[in-house]
Amino acid sequence: AAAGLSYVGAYVINTYKSYDNFLQDKYALLPAVIIICIAVVMFIIGLIGCCATFRESRVGLGLFLAIILVIFIAEVSAFVLGFVYREKVKTDVQGTMHSVFEKYDGKNPESAVVDYLQEQLHCCGVKNYSDWTTTQWFNSTGNNSVPLSCCRQDMKNCTGRLDQPQEL
């Protein structure tokens, strides 16, 4: 379990590099760091449990049980906090995404991140393609279309025009 959590934490940190423009909050990597710390603690606790079992130590097994109960309580607390604050996180991420989409011009680094995000997640805009109609890029181009990264990958001749939403 510790190895699996270590992998997940490292994967989140590595993936963060692709989306760091959307997650401008300095605490965005905190969950990944916590996951890695938990993996280290789980490894140590697993060693304590194995050693207590091999030595048949009642005190060691009691300590292991107490630690497992504390971990269970922490997991339930983390679940409750995640459930309670999910809307705040959603609102914060959407606000940051709107500001990044507002800076889109098709040339700057933020634009490349927006294009990458839309292609990888097979989406267009923050909620849908109509989010583009309020951006500076949309108004400056005047061609009534969204970036080509909004196009479905199976559409070969997609132009991003809003009068053909089935291609987006």
From TrEMBL:
Tagged with keyword Transmembrane: yes
Gene3D superfamilies assigned: Tetraspanin (1.10.1450.10)
Subcellular location per the Swiss-Prot or TrEMBL entry: Membrane
Transmembrane segments: 28-54, 61-85
Keyword annotations: Membrane, Transmembrane, Transmembrane helix
Domain of life: Eukaryota
Major localisation: membrane
Pfam family of the protein (one): Tetraspanin
A single Gene Ontology CC term: plasma membrane
Protein name: TSN36 protein
InterPro entries hit by this protein: Tetraspanin/Peripherin, Tetraspanin_EC2_sf
Lineage of source species: Eukaryota, Metazoa, Chordata, Craniata, Vertebrata
Record keyword Hydrolase present: no
Residues forming coiled coils: none
Topology of the protein relative to the lipid bilayer: Multi-pass membrane protein
